[in-house]
Structure formats: C-alpha cells, structure tokens
C-alpha cells in the first residue's frame, strides 16, 4: 500500500516569508508577500496603497515594523 500524500511531495515546504530584493520598489516587503503567497506583485502593491489610504496609521506602522523585522531573501 502506498500512503504518500500529495502535500508531502510539495516543492515549497521550506518556503519562508522574507523581503524580496530582486523585485523591490521600496523595501521589498510587498514583493516578498506576493512571492510567499503566489500572488501578483502589482495586486499586493495596490492593496497596500489602498489600505494606506483607508487606514493610514495602522498600515504605516505595520509596514515599518514588518520591513524592520522580516529578513531579506538570499539571491539564488
């Protein structure tokens, strides 16, 4: 009997959230989030700008804290 699960053979098992240095505009935070969740970079950037307009203080604080705390990705 074969009990292999499809998720056990996933290629991105060790994928971690980090800032993307290759496609960065400001700090690479939006590009890193888009890469981690397999979303389009432009969509994440538009969502970040929209949330900055609607909720300026919480979004600004969250962006600054995340850009300080998240590590930069290594170039492969």
List the helices and strands and how they pair.
Elements: H1 29-36, H2 41-54, H3 56-69
Helix pairs in contact: 1-2, 2-3
Strand content: under 5%
SSE succession = HHH
Give unreliable regions as ranges.
none
Number of helices: 3
Q: Compute the CA-based radius of gyration.
A: 16 Å
Distance between the termini: 38 Å
Helices and strands: which structural class? mainly alpha
**Strand element count:** 0
Helical content stands at 40-55%
Average pLDDT, rounded to a whole number, is 84
> What does the main sheet amount to?
none
Q: What is the 3D form?
A: globular
Q: Describe it for me?
A:
The chain crosses the membrane at residues 46-70. Keywords: Membrane, Transmembrane, Transmembrane helix. This is Phage shock protein PspC N-terminal domain-containing protein. By secondary structure, the protein is an all-alpha fold. It has a domain at 17-69. It is 47% helix and 0% strand. It contains three helices and no strands. Helix 1 crosses helix 2 (41-54) and helix 2 crosses helix 3 (56-69). The longest helix has 14 residues, at 41-54. It starts with 28 loop residues before the first helix and ends in a 7-residue tail after the last helix. The model has no long low-confidence stretch (mean pLDDT 84).
């Amino acid at each position: 009997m074969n009990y292999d699960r499809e998720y056990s053979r996933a290629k991105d098992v060790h994928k971690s959230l980090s800032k993307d240095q290759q496609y960065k505009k400001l700090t690479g935070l939006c590009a890193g989030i888009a890469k981690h969740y397999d979303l389009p970079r432009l969509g994440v950037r538009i969502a970040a700008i929209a949330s900055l307009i609607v909720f300026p203080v919480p979004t600004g604080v969250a962006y600054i804290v995340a850009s300080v705390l998240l590590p930069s990705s290594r170039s492969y």
